[in-house]
Specification:
- With 240 residues, the protein is mostly helical.
- The protein has one domain.
- Helices cover 80% and strands 0% of the residues.
- The chain is built from 13 helices and no strands.
- α2 crosses α6, α5 runs antiparallel to α6 and α6 packs antiparallel against α8.
Length: 240
């Protein structure tokens, strides 16, 4: 499939997942995961600087509980013209984002179904039990790898001569073409990772994310239940 077909396929997958039973509980899963991510990287956010900006970007654009339907609709509507308006590297990043979004929605829906089967449990314990019921460690590793790859793509884009200027010049045409949300994502990613790249901090930031997310996955999959629940509560800011 070419880039446009891949974007349309990913968006169609997301739309089908949103129509599935248990989709109402997906937002509960996303809210908890967003809080967990914020807790995992509270030190980076508190330190300020480019790494804090990159953390917030990941939190808002990849791990957040925002409604991305507007961006999805734009992807589907303009997938065919994306390749003519943006450079190939930017188009590839848009494809990666759409496919990561589809994978994330699939995992979140599986979590929501397992979550619904555990009514009455405290949130951290419920999440842990849902995580283990869903399993899929390979898909979780793939999700993390895709997040890191997207970060590296954004870091590489910042080294493309003139791309920052071009993105700003594209604001008007992008808005006219109905691509405002995608434009904002690309600009925010370019600016955020550009500041990080100027401090040679992209790989260090992504390495930190890789280590912490893998450690959390190992804990959730294999850790002792009480220790797992206590760790989650701590990251959620609810530790006793």
């Amino acid at each position: 499939m070419d880039s446009a077909e891949r974007i349309r396929a990913a968006v169609a997958r997301v739309q089908a997942l949103r129509a599935a039973p248990a989709s109402d509980s997906v937002m509960a899963i996303k809210r908890l995961q967003s809080r967990r991510f914020a807790g995992s990287y509270a030190d980076l956010i508190a330190a300020g600087g480019p790494a804090a900006d990159a953390t917030r970007f990941f939190l808002e654009e990849l791990y957040g509980d925002r409604d991305f339907r507007e961006r999805d609709a734009q992807f589907a509507r303009i997938a065919g013209t994306l390749q003519t308006l943006f450079p190939a590297a930017v188009t590839a990043t848009a494809v990666a984002l759409a496919e990561l979004h589809a994978l994330t929605e699939s995992l979140d829906l599986d979590m929501a179904r397992a979550w619904d089967a555990l009514p009455g449990e405290p949130a951290a314990r419920r999440y842990l039990q849902a995580w283990r019921a869903v399993g899929q460690p390979l898909e979780r590793r793939r999700q993390l790898a895709d997040v890191l790859a997207l970060g590296r793509d954004l870091g590489r884009l910042t080294r493309t001569p003139g791309l920052g200027m071009m993105l700003r010049m594209m604001r008007g045409p992008a808005a006219t073409a109905g691509m405002g949300a995608l434009q904002r994502f690309l600009e925010a990613g370019f600016d955020t990772f550009g500041r990080l790249a100027r401090q040679h901090g992209v790989e260090a930031f992504l390495h930190t994310v890789d280590l912490r997310e893998k450690a959390l996955m190992d804990l959730l999959f294999e850790g002792e239940l009480v220790a797992c629940e206590t760790g989650l509560l701590r990251l959620l800011g609810e530790a006793p």
